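Justification of resources, computational component.

The compute hours requested in this renewal are based largely on the per-chain cost of generating structure records like the one below. Each record pairs the submitted sequence with a full C-alpha coordinate output. That output is archived, and it is also reused by downstream analysis tasks.
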Amino acid sequence: MTKVVTVNGSPRRKGNVDALLRVAEEELEGLGVEVERISLSDYNVKPCEACDVCSENAWECPLDDDAVPLLRKLVEADALIVGSPVYFGGVTAQLKALIDRSAIPYQKSELRGKIGAAISCGGGRHGGQELTVNQIITFFLMHEMTVASGEEGVFGAMGVANDLGDIASDEEALSSSRALARRVAELLREKGA
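The structure output for this chain reads:
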Protein backbone atom coordinates (compact mmCIF):
# COMPACT_ATOMS: atom_id res chain seq x y z
CA MET A 1 0.00 0.00 0.00
CA THR A 2 1.12 3.55 -0.71
CA LYS A 3 2.41 5.29 2.39
CA VAL A 4 2.79 8.97 3.24
CA VAL A 5 4.68 10.06 6.32
CA THR A 6 3.72 13.42 7.75
CA VAL A 7 6.24 15.28 9.89
CA ASN A 8 5.03 17.86 12.38
CA GLY A 9 8.05 20.07 13.11
CA SER A 10 6.26 22.02 15.82
CA PRO A 11 7.24 21.69 19.47
CA ARG A 12 3.50 21.90 20.19
CA ARG A 13 1.63 18.59 20.02
CA LYS A 14 -1.76 20.05 19.10
CA GLY A 15 -0.89 23.37 17.52
CA ASN A 16 -2.01 24.96 14.29
CA VAL A 17 0.45 23.08 12.07
CA ASP A 18 -0.82 19.88 13.64
CA ALA A 19 -4.36 20.86 12.61
CA LEU A 20 -3.30 21.55 9.00
CA LEU A 21 -1.47 18.23 8.83
CA ARG A 22 -4.50 16.40 10.22
CA VAL A 23 -6.69 17.90 7.48
CA ALA A 24 -4.19 16.66 4.87
CA GLU A 25 -3.99 13.23 6.54
CA GLU A 26 -7.76 12.84 6.58
CA GLU A 27 -7.89 13.74 2.88
CA LEU A 28 -5.22 11.16 2.06
CA GLU A 29 -6.89 8.44 4.12
CA GLY A 30 -10.17 9.18 2.34
CA LEU A 31 -8.32 8.50 -0.91
CA GLY A 32 -7.05 5.14 0.37
CA VAL A 33 -3.52 6.25 1.20
CA GLU A 34 -1.86 4.95 4.37
CA VAL A 35 -0.55 7.75 6.61
CA GLU A 36 1.99 7.63 9.42
CA ARG A 37 2.47 10.68 11.64
CA ILE A 38 5.75 11.82 13.18
CA SER A 39 5.47 14.64 15.71
CA LEU A 40 8.97 15.82 16.47
CA SER A 41 7.80 17.01 19.90
CA ASP A 42 7.66 13.31 20.85
CA TYR A 43 11.29 12.66 19.94
CA ASN A 44 14.82 13.74 20.75
CA VAL A 45 16.74 14.80 17.64
CA LYS A 46 20.09 16.41 18.38
CA PRO A 47 21.78 18.85 15.99
CA CYS A 48 24.33 17.45 13.57
CA GLU A 49 27.89 17.76 14.88
CA ALA A 50 29.55 17.49 11.44
CA CYS A 51 31.64 14.52 12.54
CA ASP A 52 31.42 12.99 9.02
CA VAL A 53 30.92 9.45 10.36
CA CYS A 54 27.80 9.03 8.16
CA SER A 55 29.68 10.16 5.06
CA GLU A 56 32.18 7.35 5.59
CA ASN A 57 29.71 4.71 6.81
CA ALA A 58 26.12 5.21 5.73
CA TRP A 59 23.56 5.00 8.53
CA GLU A 60 26.20 5.18 11.23
CA CYS A 61 25.91 8.12 13.60
CA PRO A 62 27.54 8.46 17.01
CA LEU A 63 24.73 10.65 18.40
CA ASP A 64 22.46 8.77 20.76
CA ASP A 65 18.99 10.04 19.86
CA ASP A 66 15.93 9.30 17.71
CA ALA A 67 17.19 10.65 14.37
CA VAL A 68 18.22 7.38 12.70
CA PRO A 69 14.91 5.54 13.35
CA LEU A 70 12.95 8.62 12.20
CA LEU A 71 15.04 8.95 9.04
CA ARG A 72 14.44 5.27 8.27
CA LYS A 73 10.68 5.98 8.39
CA LEU A 74 11.18 8.76 5.83
CA VAL A 75 13.14 6.43 3.56
CA GLU A 76 10.41 3.75 3.80
CA ALA A 77 7.69 6.24 2.78
CA ASP A 78 6.52 6.95 -0.77
CA ALA A 79 5.88 10.61 0.05
CA LEU A 80 6.43 13.13 2.82
CA ILE A 81 4.31 16.04 3.97
CA VAL A 82 6.42 18.21 6.24
CA GLY A 83 4.95 21.02 8.32
CA SER A 84 6.45 23.73 10.48
CA PRO A 85 5.28 26.88 12.18
CA VAL A 86 7.30 29.99 11.32
CA TYR A 87 10.05 30.61 13.85
CA PHE A 88 11.97 33.79 13.05
CA GLY A 89 11.39 33.42 9.32
CA GLY A 90 12.14 29.71 9.03
CA VAL A 91 11.49 26.21 10.28
CA THR A 92 11.67 25.26 13.95
CA ALA A 93 14.94 24.14 15.52
CA GLN A 94 13.44 20.67 15.92
CA LEU A 95 12.75 20.33 12.20
CA LYS A 96 16.05 21.92 11.20
CA ALA A 97 17.89 19.34 13.30
CA LEU A 98 16.12 16.49 11.45
CA ILE A 99 16.77 18.15 8.08
CA ASP A 100 20.47 18.51 8.89
CA ARG A 101 20.66 14.92 10.09
CA SER A 102 19.14 13.79 6.77
CA ALA A 103 22.71 13.79 5.54
CA ILE A 104 22.52 10.15 6.63
CA PRO A 105 20.14 8.96 3.84
CA TYR A 106 21.62 11.61 1.52
CA GLN A 107 24.85 9.60 1.32
CA LYS A 108 23.13 6.96 -0.85
CA SER A 109 20.36 9.18 -2.32
CA GLU A 110 17.72 7.19 -0.45
CA LEU A 111 15.06 9.91 -0.65
CA ARG A 112 15.56 10.52 -4.39
CA GLY A 113 12.36 10.37 -6.40
CA LYS A 114 10.02 10.49 -3.42
CA ILE A 115 7.29 13.12 -3.33
CA GLY A 116 7.45 15.99 -0.86
CA ALA A 117 4.90 18.60 0.16
CA ALA A 118 5.26 21.51 2.58
CA ILE A 119 2.88 23.13 5.08
CA SER A 120 3.51 26.19 7.21
CA CYS A 121 1.64 28.47 9.58
CA GLY A 122 2.62 31.91 10.85
CA GLY A 123 1.17 34.65 13.02
CA GLY A 124 0.44 37.08 10.18
CA ARG A 125 -0.59 36.88 6.52
CA HIS A 126 2.98 37.84 5.57
CA GLY A 127 4.60 36.23 8.57
CA GLY A 128 7.31 34.17 6.88
CA GLN A 129 5.22 31.23 5.67
CA GLU A 130 6.74 31.27 2.16
CA LEU A 131 10.27 31.43 3.59
CA THR A 132 9.49 28.46 5.82
CA VAL A 133 7.91 26.49 2.99
CA ASN A 134 10.91 27.29 0.79
CA GLN A 135 13.25 25.96 3.46
CA ILE A 136 11.30 22.69 3.50
CA ILE A 137 11.27 22.58 -0.32
CA THR A 138 15.05 23.12 -0.34
CA PHE A 139 15.34 20.01 1.85
CA PHE A 140 13.30 18.10 -0.76
CA LEU A 141 15.38 19.42 -3.65
CA MET A 142 18.66 18.58 -1.92
CA HIS A 143 17.42 14.99 -1.85
CA GLU A 144 16.23 15.12 -5.50
CA MET A 145 12.61 14.65 -4.48
CA THR A 146 9.58 15.70 -6.53
CA VAL A 147 7.90 18.74 -4.98
CA ALA A 148 4.11 18.71 -4.90
CA SER A 149 2.28 21.99 -5.22
CA GLY A 150 -1.37 22.64 -4.53
CA GLU A 151 -4.04 22.66 -7.21
CA GLU A 152 -3.56 26.38 -7.75
CA GLY A 153 0.20 26.10 -8.27
CA VAL A 154 1.18 27.48 -4.88
CA PHE A 155 4.31 26.31 -3.10
CA GLY A 156 2.41 24.40 -0.45
CA ALA A 157 -0.25 25.06 2.14
CA MET A 158 0.18 28.15 4.29
CA GLY A 159 -1.96 29.42 7.12
CA VAL A 160 -2.31 32.33 9.49
CA ALA A 161 -2.90 31.76 13.20
CA ASN A 162 -1.61 33.50 16.30
CA ASP A 163 -3.20 31.50 19.07
CA LEU A 164 -3.80 27.77 19.43
CA GLY A 165 -6.87 26.79 17.44
CA ASP A 166 -7.00 29.98 15.35
CA ILE A 167 -6.26 27.97 12.20
CA ALA A 168 -9.80 26.58 12.30
CA SER A 169 -11.05 29.93 10.97
CA ASP A 170 -8.53 30.10 8.10
CA GLU A 171 -10.59 28.32 5.45
CA GLU A 172 -8.02 29.08 2.75
CA ALA A 173 -5.32 27.24 4.71
CA LEU A 174 -7.60 24.28 5.40
CA SER A 175 -8.63 24.11 1.74
CA SER A 176 -4.99 24.39 0.61
CA SER A 177 -4.00 21.51 2.93
CA ARG A 178 -6.71 19.32 1.43
CA ALA A 179 -5.69 20.31 -2.11
CA LEU A 180 -2.04 19.60 -1.35
CA ALA A 181 -2.96 16.13 -0.06
CA ARG A 182 -4.96 15.43 -3.22
CA ARG A 183 -1.97 16.50 -5.33
CA VAL A 184 0.34 14.19 -3.38
CA ALA A 185 -2.10 11.29 -3.95
CA GLU A 186 -2.33 12.17 -7.65
CA LEU A 187 1.46 12.21 -8.04
CA LEU A 188 1.70 8.88 -6.23
CA ARG A 189 -0.83 7.36 -8.66
CA GLU A 190 1.07 8.77 -11.65
CA LYS A 191 4.28 7.32 -10.22
CA GLY A 192 2.61 3.94 -9.81
CA ALA A 193 3.28 3.84 -6.09
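The radius of gyration is 16 Å. The longest strand covers residues 115-122.
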